[in-house]
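Protein record

Derive tokens from sequence
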Amino acid sequence: MAEISAPEQGKGGQRKLRSRKMSIKIDMTPMVDLGFLLITFFMLTTVLVKPYALDLIMPVDNGPTGPIKKSQSLTVILGEANKVYYYQGLATDPTTKIQVTDFSDKGLRAVLFDYKARIGDPFTVVIKSTDQAKYGNMVDLLDELAITNNRRYGIVDISESDKKLIAVK
């Protein structure tokens, strides 16, 4: 790997009295090989991007099911352009008033805190989504439910009466 080359002795076997300078030659091939092996090892064993998945706990099959009282529920509809429509009661009831908000702190979060304070602890949020809503809006809504400590919610399909309420607004 490394070698030291010494100059040959002078003629007649006589030595020179001057100090000799020896040249040293180091073979760098093993060092380069080791470097590339380490680079390859760390490139193959590292995790570049960790996959992110939303944890959604689904209810058990034999859990409580049945109708929800309209006085203890809030229907939230995710619409286009990050709009959130909400109402309490039934969509088919002509006295139902639909309101619009957004995902800001003073928007949906304030609405959820307000309804939770008015309705009480057995408070159910019924989540519906239009075809124009983004997936990120659903994630934001689930985050808001976690922040406001609302553990009772259901995700259902949007009905034609809900679409008509949104179209009027």
In short: The two ends are 82 Å apart (CA to CA). Strands lie at 2-5, 23-26, 73-78, 84-87, 99-101, 124-129, 153-155.
